[in-house]
Structure formats: structure tokens, C-alpha cells
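I am still learning, so would you mind making up any protein sequence you like and the C-alpha cells describing how it folds?
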Amino acid sequence: MSTLARMDRHADLVNRMSKAVGADLGAAIWAGNLRAEALRDAVLRCAGCDHAEECRHWLDDRAAAPGPVAPPAYCRNRALLSALAAT
């Protein structure tokens, strides 16, 4: 997998995880609660995770779940996304 494809994959996982936990990344950037650099760092943290496939399955299983859920314990962006969901 190319580096660009890998980054796209992890950007998608971060986006899907943010939706699952109830964090609106666009609104957070617009409100000044999330800098673009911090979002980039979140994607890079995700790319360094060994649970990408497990995460994808976790997200697939929760796609139809009503309401926000807490990120899994292994999520490297758990603190960030939880904090954004709380704002």
C-alpha cells in the first residue's frame, strides 16, 4: 500500500471514529477547538496504530448504533476525540 493510500485509510478511520463518538471535526476546527495541525497529528497517530483492522471492524459494527459511543481503549486518539465530543 502506498504512503498516500495508507494516510487516506487512516484519515478515514479518524473521521469515522469522530462521528461514532459524536465529535464534529469540522465544527471543532471552525470554532477554534482543533487546529488543522492537531488533526494531522491525529491521523499520524492512527497510522502508527497496530489495531487498524480491528478499528475498522469496530466502526462497522457500530455504524447503525444510535447515539455516540466511547472510543475503544486501544484508540490512540481516544482523549482527543472524547474531549472534542464533550464540547
